[in-house]
Specification:
globular; five-stranded antiparallel beta sheet
Length: 145
């Protein structure tokens, strides 16, 4: 299955970003069994979504905010540092949430009987390759203002 025919369900703010998001999507042609993608900014806002409806993308964004919080909570007691990626196995799919640039996260859905190890490795590889282009700045601290 190719993601290339799929369109981004979130309108890009500028044409340049639309091309970048489509380039990210196109690189997933080499990743086996991925059927949906969502890119999240550092504050959990969906920047692009392929293979899901807009409502589903927004649900993914909200759920991943919870995963990020959980990861931070698991890291703090052992000084584990930043969460680099999380894998969730569902009955009918696998979900990989991986760091993609400074402050951004990439969410990839993988078919349940797919080549999971290869898919995860390739998802992380694409995220690292695109990371510098997809970084999002951190919001200013409300107390600092």
């Amino acid at each position: 299955m190719s993601l290339k025919p799929l369109t981004n369900v979130i309108p890009a703010e500028t044409p340049g970003w639309a091309a970048t998001y489509d380039g990210l999507r196109d690189h997933f042609d080499d990743v086996p069994d991925v059927f949906a993608l969502v890119l999240l900014s550092n504050d959990g806002i969906a920047q692009c979504g392929y293979g899901l409806s807009l409502a589903e993308v927004q649900t993914v964004a909200a759920a991943c905010s919870g995963l990020a919080s959980l990861g931070k909570g698991l890291s703090l007691p052992v000084d584990g540092g930043a969460v680099t990626h999380t894998n969730v196995t569902l009955e009918h799919a696998h979900v990989v949430v991986t760091a993609c640039g400074e402050g951004s996260n990439l969410v990839a859905y993988i078919k349940p009987n797919g080549a999971i190890g290869v898919s995860i490795r390739e998802t992380v590889r694409v995220a690292r390759a695109f990371g510098p282009q997809l970084s999002t700045s951190h919001r200013p601290d409300a107390q600092a203002q």
